[in-house]
Amino acid sequence: MTPRIRYCTTQAGRVAYSTTGTGPPLLCDSGWITHLRAQLELLSYGAFIDRLAEHFTVIRYDKPGCGLSDISGGSGGSSPRAGRPGGSGGSSPRAGGDGIDLSFDAQTAAALAVADAVGADRLRLFGASQGAQVAAAIAARHPERVQAQVLYGMCASGHDLAPAQVRDSIVALVRAHGGLGWKALAGAFVSDPTDEEIAGLARFQQASASAEVAARLLEVYYDTDIRELLPAIEAPTAVLHREADRGTRFELGREAAALIPGATLIPLPGASHLFYHGDWLSVLDATLGFLTEQPDQAPQLTARELEVAELVAEGLTNQAIASRLSVAPRTAEAHMENIRRKLQVRSRAQIAAWVTEHRLGPKSAR
Known about the structure:
alpha/beta
């Protein structure tokens, strides 16, 4: 699979993304550092994505400062819908060694900007490790956009991953020498790694991010606490966690699942933290089993929104709709935005087509 790379603008600079497969959109965040091309050759990652793409349009992206994304910093302004501040824990607003915004909020904004770029107003999420925190934050802050999500190998607070002294030592080692840092982490990420696997992980790290960016992203992860966000999640959620995970203890995943209303905890055998190592097929089966059982729900418009949609189908402008309904023009515009978001459309013609398809009209309001 050779990905076709596109770019979108975020507050942290241009972010690279790619899509593969067909079906409902599935936004994937695989965690710490990324490289859209090199990652496909790492262990069983490419096979995992291929299997997901049999059921979904898989959307992947390189985090700010990583892989094929902009590594020079700078901002073109993120999508106006790409997240709002707050709830990120202790990450600083400007986090990159080269002026790139690597904060947790910038990462969630970048993910949403990618979803906007591909026109995925409503989507499913797959997040692993630090990417699970990003996915969970999106679901909590933007419930209208997330249909369902799978969170793998997650923790609610990065402080719980290791004692402060250990966290500081690992960050310092990654910052001083990325290759040695990967070797130090290999035992936590992969159970019983071979020399070849350690070398492959080190090459991937060097291709994905500079030592400074990798260290800062790890530092942000350690400093992020989303416990207060988890109870706000409304989307159906499955928390997958290997019972002997060496990188993130099983009880941390269990804690996160307990904080998410209605979440399903799915314990899995194994010790590798990377979902694409070891028995990756069990992770795939659990992911597909949960995500494919979530039906594509029909949009639910309020009575007023249905009324506005019907008037759009009649050809009325926003001003005319406001006059007909005796509401302020700004209120009519707000209804239009809600309708576009819920129907996942961008034009008035698409709204009119939806009304026709569902046999709505002036009589339906009576």
